[in-house]
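Quick bug: Metabolite ABC transporter in Enterobacteriaceae, permease protein EC-YbbP output formatted oddly.
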Amino acid sequence: MLRQDVVANVWPLKIWIPAVSVVVVGLLAWLLGGSPLLWSVLAGAVVLALLCGLVGWGLLWLLKRLTLKALPLRLAVNRLLRQPWSTLSQLAAFSLSFMLLALLLVLRGDLLDRWQQQLPPQSPNYFLINIAPEQIVPVKTFLAEHQTRAAEFYPIVRARLTQINGQSTDGNKDEALNRELNLTWSEQRPDHNPLVAGSWPPKPGEVSIEEGLAQRLGIKIGDTVTFTGDTQEFSAKVSSVRKVDWESLRPNFFFIFPAGALDGQPQSWLTSFRWDNGPAMLTQLNREFPTVSLLDIGAILRQVGQVLSQVSRALEVMVGLVTACGVLLLLAQVQVGMRQRHQELVVWRTLGAGKSLLRATLWAEFALLGLVSGLVAAIGAEVALAMLQTKVFDFPWAPDWRLWVLLPLTERCCYPCAAAGWGCVC
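Here's what came back:
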């Protein structure tokens, strides 16, 4: 006899989950002082979780529209779709946590290694800066004596961009306007700076601008830009736009002037070279030219790799906690729904369903949840990686097959195992 009047002595998930979420958000806001970054991250996480849940729900809906021959699969899909709150919350929690975990694992090593592999084999690994004009010839001679050749020497003048077409740049939050820029002059266009628009070389009173900065500030050919240096204010008309490869590890500049345009400003010089034969020559270089600054790109890259590794390990712990919370959510939902599940099992047994069919249906339900969550996590991780590769790192997009294989299989195994460990699949 089925007793419909018995009420489980537990709060429903529609009360528990919002209540716990409010408490967690309140604690974070109290600890971080209501930082705008906190609310941005939380809002992004909520939107992402909703998208993951809705995509997973759509996949289950498509499964229902298919002709499934296996009875346990049909019963499992129908039961999942009859419980939208429980199904959506599990899909959102597990797909989001596994997507973030996969992103961290890929970003920690693959992208940095891939960027380093794209560098030219003989790209410079040392920069010399703050070279005085009278030190150019001695530095060239020193490097030649040690069988290494420096790249081109570039003059450096530091100035701040203060006006565009006579309008002040105050209030513009672009990073390039909040600091002094390194300006240079050259008759030869750098070979890694292809011309996008205009003509080269710039004539007296003209200047060439980098494409990205021109787009951000809305500067076009023919516009006038004004700079304030250490000694005076000077202006120039934009005559060309260059595309700069900032990842080439070669000297690059936002603005390149014609020769003689910056003669009235204090200047130093910059160059780069490659050296792989130990620190002895570098020590001698520092001793002979104590005022010249030596910048070790290799050491910086190693330090960046260490920082990324440490940050990713910390984030992995956080994502691991989120995943653990997802497992607890699964177990809580299973426990809360145990009474209803037992009632359904009794009805199915009354209608003639065997124990093997019931067990197969329960396994199929949790396996489908895991498989769909894994697919959603793989889709989300692949989309995020594609955006990072193409928009941030300027890499060609390449699908990662590991995401599409490991994520669905991992969650496909985790769900039934977690449910079995709680004793609901037997």
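Actually, after a second look the formatting is fine. Confidence is low (pLDDT under 50) at residues 1-11. Closing.
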